[in-house]
Amino acid sequence: MGSGSEYGPGERGESKERLPAGASGVRHRVRLDQPRAPRRSPLPEYDPEAFGRFSERFARFLGTGRFIVGMTVTIIVWFSWNIFGPEELRFDPYPFIFLTLMLSLQASYAAPLILLAQNRQDDRNRVTYEQDRKQNERSIADTEYLTREIAALRMGLGEVATRDWIRSEFQDLIKDLDERRLAPGRSDEEDR
Read out DSSP for 77-90? Predict the structure, then answer.
């Protein structure tokens, strides 16, 4: 082994950065304030929202009478063709193994799509319930605030002369004035 010049860069366990073709040997600093460029995936890409919408439409279709009637008609035609049709054109004889396979395949795709649609509906319901709960909390807080304000107004009005109280005081004064007018001598003696 000789001097250190025998080894190329990165051959001693040092990390060696690969540079794209045509790039110089200058190493660029990674910027942390910017997102990384998306990596190419060998898997096909799909839009989860579009797939979710498709699953909801599919689940909605499976729950209709049109689907049930269509499935029933298809199975009756399948049975009829493979029992009563020309023998050389029958493609699924009596045990109907191919029909069983097709129905199993349809069920194996339908079940996960229905579950996906239900999960999406649960997520929407959860958001709705959360919004309703927050709205109820705000309503309760507003009601409590208004209750405290009304109680404060009632306490404040307890010290304020009301229209009925003023009316009753005026009526008492009018009675006193009428009594004094009728018996002027007597009222002067009472005042002393």
Answer: HHHHHHHHS-GGG-
- Confidence check: pLDDT of 14 > 60: no
Task: Give me 51's structure tokens.
Answer: 């797939």
CB atoms within 10 A of CB 32: 6
Tens-place pLDDT, residues 38-92? 888 888 887 888 888 988 999 899 889 999 999 999 999 999 999 999 999 999 9
Give ∠ CA 102-103-104 in degrees, rounded to 5: 90
User: Residue 77: which of 87, 92, 64 has the closest Cα?
Assistant: 92
Q: Specify whether the CB–CB gap between 43 and 107 falls below 8 A.
A: no
In angstroms, the CA 26 to CA 19 distance is: 9
Residue with tokens 């996906």: 116
Q: What are the pLDDT digits (tens) for 118-155?
A: 999 999 999 999 999 999 999 999 999 999 999 888 88
